[in-house]
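Subject: Interface between my chains keeps coming out wrong

I've been trying for a while to get a sensible model of this assembly. When I model each chain on its own everything looks fine, but I need the whole thing in one frame so I can look at the contacts. Pasting all components below, labels as-is. Any help appreciated, I'm running out of ideas.
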Amino acid sequence: MKVFSKVKDLQAHLKSLKNQSVGFVPTMGALHDGHISLMKQSIKRNDVTVCSIFVNPTQFNDKKDLKKYPRTLEKDSRLLEKAKVDILFAPGVKDIYPKGTKHSVKVNLKGLDKQMEGAFRPGHFEGVVQVVHRLLDIVKPDELFMGQKDFQQFTIIQQMIRNLKMKVKLVVCPIEREKDGLAMSSRNRRLTKAKRRDAPIIYKTLKAAKRRMKTKTVQEVVEMSMKELGNPRGYNPEYFSIINGNTLKEIKKWSDSNYLVACVAVWAGEIRLIDNLIL
Ligand code: PAF
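Reply #2:
Try treating it as a single job with all components included. I did that and got this:
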């Protein structure tokens, strides 16, 4: 695996790979099997796979969260090598945001960034759009791989690609789960033992919502889910939203959309977890 930290070195190498398709997986490191499944998809579909590891400061609305975000570059690098990723791009903040250059991106997000994560993490998606746009501009891949776990994130990036008429194709990969149902996330390793033990409640509640749609109203399902998610000690749900998967707007009746998704964010002690299920 080739490793680059400088934009111009990466680009020189990519330029030398004539007529090869490039798949790109942007990450913030602390890699787990969920990330590896994205790499595998990219490797399957492309001649060359590039993974970036960059903990993007502009998408953290909480500076403490940025500081605590796990940084495990050596271990990540071994995992990528094992997965047969071709290129690791691990830039520093100055490589991504050089002084004196403008990196804000104007995109019409059609309000997709206003609810759920957007409502609870102000500025988060501006940062995500900014960094993904910058990384795509550097790597210029044919395909971009993102996980379904960050439902709002991939929907917003899809809108950015459409709105800016970018050439890249977004490939969304399914959520990878632990045996007990917890969605894989870099944040899971920060859960205390007790919070980790109780974490399957999140997926259980999502699955219960799917069952309950047959007999309960949307509001009843939301209320029951919020109550259940608050049951384990130290668990504090922020939202449980049933949305139209295209507009990300909350629905009122089951018949409001034929693409329904239940999305959840919950604090497990100090750690904020998100998950979703297409209903
Ligand atoms: O999902 C993530 O890990 C990040 O938001 C991303 C897409 C790598 C941008 O920093």
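Reply #3:
Confirming on my end. The pocket of pantoate is lined by residues 26-28, 56, 59, 128, 131-132, 150, 153 (CB under 6 Å).
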